[in-house]
Amino acid sequence: MPFASPPRLPRCGVVDLGSNSVRLVVYEGHTRNPLPIFNEKAVLRLGRGLQATGKLNEEGMALALTVMHRYHAVARAMGAHPFEVLATAAVRDASNGPAFVAALQERMPGVAIRILSGEEEAAYSADGMLCGIPDAEGVLADIGGGSLEVIRLADGRRGESQTLPLGVIRLAERSGGDMARARALADADLDSVPWLAQASGSDLYLVGGAFRALARIQMLQANYPLAMVHHYTVAREDARTLADMLATAPRRTLERLPGAPRRRIDDLPFAGMVLRRLLRRTSARRVVFSASGLREGWFMRRMPAAIREQEPLHSAAWELAARHGRDPELPPALIEWTRPLFRGERPAITKLREAMCWMSDIGSHDHPEFRAEQAFLRVLRQPGLGLDHPSRAFLALGVAGRYDAGPDAAFLRPARLLLDLESAGRAELLGLALGLAYTLSAGTRNLLAGTWLRVEDGKLALHLRPNSGVFAGEAVIRRLERLAQAMGLAAAAVEDLEEAAAE
């Protein structure tokens, strides 16, 4: 008997046709956290020679026709609709850009090919970055091969923007490869954006392949415990040191740098130079790298308002629960059940506690010997864009504890390195509470409803409703005592008809 195919979620695809590279991304589902299921890049260097000739590179155009034909075939085969091409600086600035687009259109009839203005490119980039970091405050800088978009961010909204000819390929050609000349050009261009100085004391958000390459180099140099560029945050002084090193190091030194991509070796000095001048102009206190930009901005504009307005952390947690959990009605009950343990918690901590309750059953279908580790890694490495690295570590550590991970388990090390002792302790405490809740309830809302916790008179009291199907067995008492000990309290299990009636 043949197996029935599961229903396919809606898909859409976008091609980012830049001055240096071209990339196809296919997304699946209607979601607050864009989920790419296909991602392929080709280096074309369309913008090479544009400064001198005013035209797109001939070799790049020939290769682009082949690559774009493949991307069109992939998008059709995967059922991606809509499928669009967004062309940026090189195509819009080149005299032969319109002819190139016409040739592409002939190879891909019916496909929308949009040449974005500088203002549109900045808007897409900002929307995509804010999709991943919705409370951003400061300046966004999106670097490509042909241009640099800078956008003012305030209260999680995009403000003024400007496009500058400071893409890594264009800056290299404008300066003739001379770094002193490149610095003077960058300073002159950035001087034309007076509002950059208004970001003093806030953050500088970096988007674009050349900047992501810088992040990976810095991660390896710092032995950072989570190899994830999105939301990677670097102090101002560390970012300045990295930028200075890349802008001044000989090519041979760059080639030997761990993590330095071979195809970006020529770009690294100019990316470092632009970063150094941005740090000087903005006086930003930190640099925050973002993996979401123009393509994610395109995706989010196609989502209904109800999805765009979702809180990204809660949305990511809900999506994990929907894919891997057993009872979608249990997490809201867990949120209320754990509330008495955390009176007076800050709103940011409440958000994390609620997210952990949603994620707390995602190992239910895994092999029991590996549930703790699998759930930990699933949370730590999830694709949700709205989680900074400490939040990922907090949630992963707590979920692992819910599955009884030993405190010294080696796989927990990345999370412990990303958290201070207080945060790690809070995550472990919540994990213990959730472990107790699942032991009592068998992962069901109805059984959990027969229990509740109270902190009273120096005790952690577990109240049990008579005849509800739950009782204070050995496993329950053991978990209750561990939780009480972690809170510095004595443990007590209470079965009381009057208490049950009051509830």
TrEMBL record:
CDD domains: ASKHA_NBD_HpPPX-GppA-like. Gene3D superfamilies: 3.30.420.40, Exopolyphosphatase. Domain 2, Hypothetical protein af1432. Residues 315-491 form the Exopolyphosphatase C-terminal domain. It comes from the Bacteria. Residues 30-304 form the Ppx/GppA phosphatase N-terminal domain. Pfam families: Ppx-GppA, Ppx_C. PANTHER family: EXOPOLYPHOSPHATASE, RETROGRADE REGULATION PROTEIN 2. This is Exopolyphosphatase. It comes from Rhodopila globiformis (Rhodopseudomonas globiformis).
